[in-house]
Amino acid sequence: MPAPGDGLIGSESVQAGSGKPFSLYVHVPYCSVRCGYCDFNTYAQDDFGDGVNLNTFADEAIAELDFAHSALQNSGAEITPLHSVFFGGGTPTRIPSTDLVRILHHAVSLFGLSSHAEVTTEANPDSVDEEDIQILAEGGFTRISFGMQSAVPRVLKILDRTHTPDNVPKVVRWAQQAGLQTSVDLIYGAPGETLAEWEQSLRAAVSYHPDHISAYSLIVEEGTKMWARIRRGELDMPDDDAMADMYLLADRILGEAGYQWYEVSNFSTDISTRSTHNLAYWHNVNWWGIGPGAHSHWGGTRWWNVKHPLAYSQRIRQQISPAQACEVLTPNQQHFEDVMLRLRIREGMTVRELQGQNQMSEDQLHQKIQWLEKQGLIEAVEPLNSRVVLTLKGRLLGDAVTRELLPE
Predict the structure, then answer these.
(1) Chain region(s) in the chain for CATH 3.80.30.20
(2) Which pLDDT band holds residue 183 (cuts at 50, 70, 90)?
(3) What proportion of the chain, given as a percentage, has pLDDT over 70?
(4) What are phi and psi of 234, to 5 degrees?
(5) Among candidates 403, 407, 311, 399, which has minimal Cα distance to 356?
(6) Listed residue (213, 247, 253, 274) closest to 393, CA to CA
């Protein structure tokens, strides 16, 4: 449905989101090169005409922050201090570090920041230097997530990544010396990637001693450059068995190096180094997305901004909501999303939570749980308040487990 121009949230969603943690996401859509597998809202150009370019982004983001604060206040929402702030993209560090700090400081001046808040920016290993990282650390950032993807030049080339592998340990070390938590993102399953090459990337990543490692399977979305190359027969994708072998290898190597899984694709050294911001998504709490194409959620209402930077800028200048459309989730949709998201995390869900608001009878649910236990997909469950948690085998088949635990 169309999003209201004043950005107001309905009273039922305001009440449902009351008192829940509040996170902020800032989407910086600029990249130096658009990777062949990427289907995010990103642009490999700096200028869009009509005065819209890299240098105007910070002022536009600050203007949307003002709009967000006013809309939440006028909706009667209870605004809690920011639980986490995440700058993603695109490549946020394509704009000056001083602009990222300026956006952060304005957000904190409006909403406040909880005492243990996590403040993260993504960065490509070739998009920051030591001075940039120091500016971020002194400006209030607590964490940097570096897009490593692979340690193998051949694989990086297939993925259209521009950095050299030697950049990664250097930027991780700079961030650590600045007192920041560090994360590296890896992608497995690139066309032609071997198990040995994936192992090389994993062992390189753990040798840098980051606090957190993400290991994502490559998903080739229709319409991307890589999808077109696969369609033309220029590239081959690994089969499901090969992808499973890569995930099992990641779980073993990361586990041996002291990284614990806390979400299917995410591993940390301990509880304190888990990604607070990503956990906010998996728990489906409140967040406001700033920037072109950014998504937001409050108490069951979801909306998303217009994608193109020029269209976004025009709305910001007119002081109307940059949201393109919105939707209000039904209780059934909210239950489905809760199950889908929370089963991915290490704590899982209780049997009572899975049952939802009479979504399924206790007998039906217990029959499903017993079957999943016998298949080795979930850990053993006994009392009603016990948690349903995926086993290693279950993590490989998480979507199937989710479907089994939802009402038919």
Answers:
(1) 11-282
(2) very high
(3) 98
(4) -80, -25
(5) 407
(6) 247
Spatial strand order in the sheet of 323-328: 260-263, 266-268, 212-217, 181-188, 143-149, 113-123, 82-89, 22-28, 286-290, 295-298, 301-305, 323-328
Give buried/exposed letters for 99-138 (b at 16+ CB in 10 A, else e).
bbbbbbebbbebbebeeebbbbbbbbbbbbeeebbbbbbe
Topology annotation, domain 332-404:
Arc Repressor Mutant, subunit A (1.10.10)
Mean pLDDT of 40-52: 88
Does this model's pTM top 0.90? My answer is yes
Q: Assign domain 11-282 to its CATH superfamily.
A: tm_1862 like domain (3.80.30.20)
Cα–Cα dist 183/145, whole Å: 4
| Predicted local confidence at residue 380, as pLDDT | 83
Rounded distance, CA 305 to CA 372, Å? 40
What value does the mean pLDDT take over residues 90-95?
95
pLDDT at residue 407, as a whole number? 79
Rounded to an integer, what distance in angstroms lies between the CA atom of residue 347 and that of residue 17? Answer: 22
Asked whether the beta carbons of 212 and 261 are under 8 A apart, the reply is no
CA distance 387 to 376: 15
Q: What share of the chain is helix, strand, coil (3-state, %, to 5)?
A: 40, 20, 35
The predicted structure's pLDDT at residue 3:
87
